[in-house]
Design goal:
With about 625 residues, this protein is of the alpha+beta class. About 35% of the residues lie in helices and about 20% in strands.
Length: about 625
């Protein structure tokens, strides 16, 4: 078996009493324990922090090594994800204990708090809020960087009596794992790094993210997936950014009650939507058509996409905002990132120094986005106001140990692009890099193909690790279609002509759109609660709404194609649809034998030759 350790069993057993584990009230799979560690690992500053720990024991015997699972962030509590970690890592936990702990300053481990902002937000707090938060934390804000967390892990290893650790990290957790491996190379049995942040990362200017945007968009459209949408999604995005001219476009969207609203879109918001797609492949699937239509003047798809991305309408993603501790995030990022300024400068001068470096960038490296988008994406604005309590960090050049290492990267990940994974893999002799197609952030939890899990098992069974093939995407992950801007853009249905034929095909498109929106809602329910049920309601692209309840899909002036509305019921045995609207051929349709859709539009008999299965895609 790979990764067997040579720990002294006697020493391990005697030291394990240093952490008193007892039953957890909310789970039988883990024991609960606490470990008090110094606020300042050097001992120069008094104070202590109590770390909350969960332990899942190896099924048999006394494990001499432990897996430490590290969440993202900085600022994401790990204990709420304990069961998920156990499920993902279960096959390798048969010979290892599994330790999960909330890092200092978050969750159950003496969480930091600030009155001005309690939750992490994508846009970040204002400069005044940052200054007030830092003042509220006080001088202790010095002690919430990655190096202190590394010291906590080592204290936990010693107190637990473990000879070595297997470090599994996701996102920021990979940086913690790497820095521990640099500081304590002989105590590392193996590394499993998922969605990699380099040891000195993240880059305050997010250049790797911006450089990856064109590749990710073209990968989304590979194999002619966008053949009916666009020849070049990157060119469309550039056109839309130019159309915005640094200002805000407004689009109209329809809520689940059929009421119209407006939402603004800027280039920075477009970039934020792409990043949101790291957690929601179906959201990113909407991007090419939404951008193409908006670049040509129709903002309806763009508005609907933005609502899903930022207002939670049918959005299945579990974004980081849901479990992040904002004060800890800024205490860590502001203190330890290598920002392009002098800490001795005033906040205004810091920003000027950063802008000078940004202005010197080759714009081709961030295209189709702009320098201002780069600033908006970064933490420059917030951290320029942070009252630094430590000298500027220096780049850590310590080597990474040549231990068995498995690195996962989602090919569609923009937060931690594959370039990061390749950089770290190149520094670890014999490291295995597994890139998974069509997957964004947090590969082990997002990969449905099973490839990542097989690679993990192979590492610990000393078997060959095989690359992942390009697996088929689900229908919700395939790029969604362009929306017609007028009825004349719709081809007449087969066997029909003129406006009645175009209206018939518009009805088909409308049904397909409503069904897709409902499927997205169902996917959101399954993702958030593991089950779906109850009545579902979605707004049309142009107007109206559709309601699914007890097997009946009811339309209330639902419109997808401008000037064509659909009302009535779509249900087994009693389907009757009324077609109206300024552009449509008015009339009614019903389902007849062999599941054919037939009726009269503008006095003309029409029929859809294909069965109803063709309507739902």
């Amino acid at each position: 078996m790979l990764l067997a350790s040579g720990a002294c069993a006697t020493a391990a057993t005697s030291a394990r009493a240093d952490i008193a584990f007892g039953p957890c009230g909310d789970t039988n799979n883990f024991a609960c324990g606490h470990l008090t560690v110094p606020l300042d690992p050097t001992g120069a500053t008094p104070g202590a922090i109590t770390l909350a720990i969960r332990r899942h024991r190896a099924p048999a015997g006394e494990a001499r090594t432990a897996i430490v699972a590290l969440a993202g962030g900085p600022g994401q509590a790990a204990i709420p994800f304990a069961e998920q970690f156990a499920e993902m890592l279960g096959p390798i936990a048969s010979t290892h204990d599994l330790l999960i702990f909330d890092q200092r300053g978050i969750g159950l481990s003496n969480p930091l708090s600030c009155h001005r902002f309690e939750r992490f937000t994508e846009s970040g707090p204002a400069a005044q809020a940052i200054r007030e938060c830092a003042a509220q934390i006080g001088p202790a804000r010095t002690f919430y960087t990655t190096d202190q967390t590394v010291a906590d892990i080592e204290a936990m290893r010693v107190a637990g009596g473990y000879e070595k650790l297997v470090l599994y990290g996701t996102s920021y957790g990979t940086k913690v794992a790497e820095r521990y491996a640099q500081a304590h190379p002989t105590r590392v049995e193996a590394l499993v790094l998922d969605s990699v942040v380099p040891p000195n990362g993240p880059d305050p200017l997010d250049r790797a993210t911006l450089a990856a945007v064109p590749r990710v968009l073209r990968d989304l459209c590979a194999r002619r997936a966008c053949a009916r949408i666009t020849p070049d999604p990157v060119a469309d995005l550039a056109r839309l950014v130019r159309r915005m001219h640094g200002s805000v476009l407004h689009g109209r969207w329809i809520d689940a009650n059929g009421r119209a609203h407006t939402i603004g879109a800027s280039s920075a918001i477009l970039l934020g939507t792409l990043l949101a797609g790291d957690f929601a492949p179906s959201l990113r699937a909407e991007f090419p058509a939404a951008v193409r239509d908006a670049a040509e003047g129709d903002n309806a798809l763009l508005a609907r996409m933005l609502v899903r991305a930022f207002r939670g309408e049918g959005d299945e993603r579990e974004g980081p905002a849901e479990s992040f501790d904002g004060p800890l995030y800024f205490a860590t990022i502001c203190e330890e990132d290598l920002f392009p300024w002098s800490r001795a400068s005033s906040p205004t001068t810091r920003l000027a120094e950063a802008h000078a470096q940004i202005d010197a960038l080759d714009t081709s490296t961030i295209a189709p986005f702009t320098r201002s988008d780069l600033v908006g994406l970064s933490d420059l604005q917030a951290c320029s106001a942070w009252p630094f309590s430590t000298p500027a960090p220096v780049s850590d050049t310590a080597p990474l140990p040549g231990v068995p290492t498995l690195i996962f990267s989602g090919a569609a990940d923009l937060r931690t692009p594959t370039a990061n994974a390749r950089e770290v893999a190149a520094k670890i002799p014999g490291a295995h890099l597994v890139v998974v197609a069509h997957v964004g952030h947090s590969v082990l939890s997002a990969d449905t193909s099973g490839c990542a899990r097989r690679a993990l098992l192979a590492l610990f069974a000393a078997k060959p690790i095989r690359p992942c093939s390009t697996s088929p995407r689900s229908s919700l992950q395939l790029p969604s279609p362009l929306a017609p801007r007028r009825l004349t853009e719709v081809r007449p249905a087969a066997g029909s002509r003129g406006r009645p034929g175009r209206t018939l095909d518009a009805v088909v498109l409308t049904l397909q759109d409503a069904i897709r929106q409902l499927r997205l809602q169902i996917a959101a329910q399954l993702s958030s609660s593991g089950r779906s049920g109850g009545a579902l309601s979605v707004g049309g692209l142009r107007s109206g709404r559709a309601v699914l309840a007890e097997g009946t899909l009811a339309f209330h002036e639902y419109s997808y194609v401008p000037g064509v509305t659909l009302s009535g019921e779509f249900a087994p045995g009693r389907t009757k649809l009324r077609i109206a609207g300024a552009a449509a051929a008015h009339g009614a349709l019903r389902v007849v034998a062999h599941k054919r859709l037939e009726g009269t539009l503008e006095g003309h008999r029409v029929s859809l030759p294909a069965g109803l299965s063709s309507l739902t895609g």
